[in-house]
Specification:
The protein is an alpha/beta fold and 281 residues long. It is built from eight helices and seven strands, in the order E-H-E-H-E-H-E-H-E-H-E-H-H-E-H.
Length: 281
């Protein structure tokens, strides 16, 4: 296995303070990519005092021998996103891997127990569509012209999907399916280029917030029966790293991919050595 298969590649991972974004950024860094990690949470000043920041993600990458830059960016502000892409253009001249992981839902303090649509506040729309779907589309808007200059690269949208099943709540289901459909449309528009776009769906991730909600940590999660089916955020990170290193990834253009299926295809496991199958609701 080529541990530095992404040497010379430049990556941007949005929403990289914690969760999937952090796991993806770290695994891309381990594989040799220079990783720009964007988000709003800085060391000592994080969104709603959540654990994790872009600075800590960069620390983890550099502690593993990689190279990374922490980039404070509010992706709901187009000028922030545009400035970030221009910084990458100025400093690197190209962008090879774009991971759209920014997700604004956690800005809201909302009871996540399943409810009917009309019981949720309308602010759910802004959180999931302005802070999620549109923020990802805006990043593509500014980044794709840079990628087209090299006519190569990989765009990944983190998402969630389970064989067309309803995803539990109205706004979440609508937002995730909007992301999935945007990948389909982007693949159509990029069909005559050498840029590949895919959506990648993890299972139930053992993120910092999940661990906190269950009153445990990464060292003790196996003691919690409810977490036995979970996977670490590094599992999706290894999936994205494998895709980025696949010279034939173009064949997957426009597809929605499950991390468990990619683990079988590329032969990687989670950090505890398990090959975890695709998550089913």
């Amino acid at each position: 296995m080529d541990l530095k298969k992404l040497d010379g590649k430049i990556a941007l991972v949005t929403g990289g303070s914690r969760g999937a974004g952090r796991g993806i950024a770290v695994e891309l860094g381990k594989a040799g990519a220079v990783v720009y990690v964007s988000g709003r949470s800085l060391r000592g000043s994080t969104t709603r005092d959540f654990p994790g920041s872009i600075d800590e993600t960069v620390d983890e990458i550099t502690n593993n021998g990689g190279k990374a830059c922490a980039c404070r960016c509010d992706h709901t502000r187009d000028e922030d996103t545009q400035a970030l892409i221009e910084r990458i253009r100025r400093e690197q001249g190209h962008l090879d891997i774009l991971v759209n992981n920014v997700w604004g839902f956690h800005d809201l303090e909302v009871d996540l127990q399943p409810k009917t649509f009309w019981e949720y506040p309308l602010q759910m729309w802004e959180a999931m569509f302005q802070g999620g779907v549109r923020a990802q589309i805006a990043t593509n808007h500014y980044a794709i012209p840079l990628m087209l200059e090299s006519d190569s690269g990989l765009i990944v949208h983190s998402t969630f999907q389970d064989q067309d099943k309803y995803l539990g709540t109205f706004y979440y289901d609508l937002a995730k399916n909007s992301i999935n459909r945007s990948v389909f449309g982007l693949a159509h528009d990029l069909r005559d280029t050498k840029i590949t776009v895919v959506a990648v769906s993890p299972g139930w991730m053992r993120t910092e917030l999940v661990l906190r909600n269950f009153g445990t940590d990464e060292e003790h999660w196996q003691e919690v029966e409810a977490l036995k089916r979970t996977e670490s955020p590094y599992y999706i990170g290894r999936a994205v790293s494998a895709l980025a290193g696949d010279g034939k990834v173009r064949h997957k253009n426009g597809q929605l991919l499950q991390v468990g299926d990619l683990a079988r295809e590329y032969g990687f496991t989670d950090i505890d050595g398990r090959l975890i199958p695709p998550f089913l609701l």
